[in-house]
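[Meeting: bench + compute handoff]

Bench side (C.D.) handed over the final construct sequence. Compute side (W.E.) agreed to return the predicted structure before the next meeting so the bench team could plan truncations. Sequence as handed over:
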Amino acid sequence: MTDLSKICGLPIQIDEDTQSIYYDESVKFDKELNVPISEIVPVLLNKFIKYPENVYKQYRKILNTGADNSQNLSYDLMVIPFGLLGIEYIKTHIYYSKPVKDKFACFLEMVRGEVTVIIQKNKENEDPYAYTTAVENVDILVLKEGERLAIPTGVYYTFVNTGTNQTIFTVVYANMHQKIDYSTLQKEKGLAFYIISKNARLEIVANPKYKTECEACKHSMNELDEEERTMYIHSLLNEKAPLYDMLRNYSGKLMTALALQ
């Protein structure tokens, strides 16, 4: 058993043989969701995939007994197994939040493994009758254990396990971190890029339903330039304490940074 408490601040352990997660009895959560493949098929490259039946796990609104959590903030733990959905690397739902000036949709903290985050901003005032949707910018960021990310409002985003093992990360948000209504993506059928395995190598391929002039190269958090760091790393994320401890001790500051519905 490997103790993950020093990284995430919660008394949880992982069994290295089975990759199962075990919680101390003091840990409570609102829901344990096994997200079925049927829910995310609309945004997969291959729309005919039926397996695995359940794609990833989400533990919603975790609360360690005795902690003084704000009712307006939520703390979720996400577990994405290693593998493929057809030729795509396993990914989560797509999320979106309406733009709110100087606010963030969520804060992310990597607990274990590697996750690649696709962040897409579409152009405003696009022609509703156009064949393709115009994209303003796409960032593909790779996070490893201990790294953190602040996702701004006004963008689409999804989490992809591009590592070689199960990935675990936590998300703190204030209502605006919500999966999108996939009926709004009927034309596009996903984001502007897919991350696939081709000849045992990772590749990023474009979705032809988008008009995308920007490049889509994945890079690590260490490779962010000054402007990108301002966009994706809030000053609160420089704290050494785990996000869960910050939720208990600095809930007011987190609520100021995160967008409320």
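W.E. noted at the follow-up: The helical segments are 5-8, 37-40, 226-232, 243-249, 251-257. C.D. will use this when planning the next construct.
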